[in-house]
């Protein structure tokens, strides 16, 4: 039997707590595997009550107790380093950010130790974390550091029912993208993605489409030479190594339904090139997956949404999808271990 999944709280003033409660309430209808939460028993109970969701909270003393407790209530493992905070929806505060970070740290440690089969992270406010000394651009970079992985080897993939995309450059100004793009970066991250799609998603020979950077993929150099100078050489190297890679494709046509049927993931050159089509098509079911880590990590592909926290407007679809995907990936890794 696989260990349970662990969820980190995210910022307690955002929509994370109410979505976790809603996910547990829908566990049977959605076929979710057992999971538990790192910290926040009191605020989770308050968020559930406010939302009118019947969610008993079961405090556990060990991750191994989560599976037995899961049908009785939402299992919560108290944090070793931080106390709970009062639930204040829509009103971020310093102690809440500290709790979010402590939850992330403990949940990551449990996944690394094998006590949890996978990690599902709640949405955080990057500015709030920075205010308490968090030195990473986001949770992905923190997890890479915690796992001993170079930041460039932690690959963000956005996955929904109809599309998977990967942004090669992420949280940087658009003006910096041409400078940051290199053939080595494209090769390295695409190869990591291909191997992860096989290992964790069961795709034996992933079909990977690379987008161009410029309009019309440069149109033969008329609108820029990055396609010829950077992207095409990386594609040639990947193909020589046996990867099923195509491109560079004009990004304005890459996400049409007919084109989407021709690949398993689209590798994009910058943040919005990857996230706009994913959110347009699969906003309420989009999952952020970090490829290349020794642990499985997923999260809902949305933010804290402070403006609607506690108002009964948040949709739990992406959180449920993230939990389900983490469980499916964990099951594949467990099966792989048994076959070795």
Plain-language structure description:
The protein has helices at residues 16-25, 27-30, 41-51, 66-69, 94-113, 126-130, 139-146, 177-180, 183-201, 226-240, 251-254, 257-260, 271-282, 317-339, and strands spanning 5-8, 35-38, 57-59, 74-77, 119-121, 155-159, 164-167, 207-211, 244-249, 265-268, 287-291, 297-300. 42% of the residues lie in helices and 15% in strands. It has 340 residues and is α/β, with parallel strands linked by helices. The protein has a twelve-stranded mixed beta sheet, with helices on both faces. The chain contains 14 helices and twelve strands. It has two domains: 1-150 and 297-340, Isopropylmalate Dehydrogenase (3-Layer(aba) Sandwich); 155-292, Isopropylmalate Dehydrogenase. α9 (183-201) crosses α10 (226-240).
Q: Please count the helical segments.
A: 14
Number of domains: 2
Sheet/helix structural class: alpha/beta
**What is the name of the CATH class of the largest domain?**
Alpha Beta
Strand arrangement in the largest pleated sheet? 3-4-2-1-5-12-11-6-7-10-8-9
CATH A-level architecture of the largest domain: 3-Layer(aba) Sandwich
Averaging pLDDT over every residue, what do you get?
94
Q: Between the first and last Cα atoms, what is the distance in angstroms?
A: 17 Å
Uncertain parts: none
For this structure, the CATH topology of the largest domain is Isopropylmalate Dehydrogenase
CATH-defined superfamily of the largest domain: Isopropylmalate Dehydrogenase
The ordered string of helix (H) and strand (E) elements is: EHHEHEHEHEHHEEHHEHEHHEHEEH
Quick one: biggest sheet? 12 strands, mixed
Helical fraction:
40-55%
Shape: globular
Number of strands: 12
Q: How big a fraction of the residues is strand?
A: 15-25%
